[in-house]
Write a structure and sequence with these properties.
The protein has 223 residues and is mainly α. The protein contains 12 helices and no strands. It has one domain: MetI-like (MetI-like fold, Orthogonal Bundle), CATH 1.10.3720.
Length: 223
């Protein structure tokens, strides 16, 4: 269980860096940026249950993924991601990243909106390149927003994936996608082992608290 939680945590950098990169592109006002902003935010507007059903349809034995592979001549691969422990966990991680994409994207766009345009104008006068502006001005000034997205993404990874896992895999196959949060439900409610469920809940709280304190120390921004 904790191993599954730790594996899902590995998806957090992707869930942060991917929307950050897209936010940088949208902020540069590429053609159709308003449409892209709306489309990317759509996963946030639906519930985890709906996202889970979409993911099941995508990763199923004869789902959308198999159809896409068939169209490009790779139908012989015939993926059945939700039937194997490791691939099912990877499917959950991919869905988790997609579900957090819109939220983190909006946070980064909001952060970019707070940066004074005069800073960019001064950088252009000094001859700074687009990459120089990105890495020396935009990203450093977004440090607080990166910290915030890390916190909410981490908390989501530990405490908000129950609906997603319940719909997609039910914790299986075997215990391949059973996280500590899902284990609390299985033992504390489904099987009425309230003592064990409560103990697991304390362990979950301690784990989230410890990791949160660690990341706050690592990403602390000096005032």
């Amino acid at each position: 269980m904790l191993e599954n939680n730790a594996t899902i945590v590995l998806a957090i950098p992707v869930a942060i860096l991917l929307p950050l990169g897209v936010a940088l592109l949208i902020n540069s006002h590429v053609r159709g940026w308003r449409v892209f902003r709306s489309v990317f935010f759509l996963p946030t507007a639906v519930s985890w249950v709906v996202i889970g059903f979409v993911a099941v349809r995508f990763f199923a034995n004869d789902g959308i993924l198999h159809d896409l592979l068939t169209r490009v001549g790779l139908g012989f691969i015939h993926p059945d991601a939700l039937s194997h422990e490791r691939s099912a966990l990877i499917a959950v991680m991919i869905t988790f990243v997609w579900s957090m994409f819109g939220t983190n994207l909006i946070i980064f766009l909001a952060g970019m909106a707070t940066i004074d345009q005069e800073i960019y104008d001064a950088a252009k006068v000094d001859g700074a390149s687009a990459f120089g502006v990105m890495f020396r001005i935009t990203i450093p000034l977004l440090k607080r927003f990166v910290q915030f997205t890390f916190v909410i993404t981490l908390i989501t990874a530990f405490t908000a994936l129950f609906s997603l896992i319940f719909v997609m895999t039910g914790g299986g196959p075997g215990f391949g996608t059973t996280t500590l949060e899902f284990f609390i439900y299985q033992d504390g409610f489904a099987q009425s082992y309230f003592g064990l469920g409560a103990t697991a809940g304390v362990v979950l709280f301690v784990a989230v608290f410890a990791v949160s304190m660690l990341q706050l120390r690592l990403l602390r921004v000096d005032d």
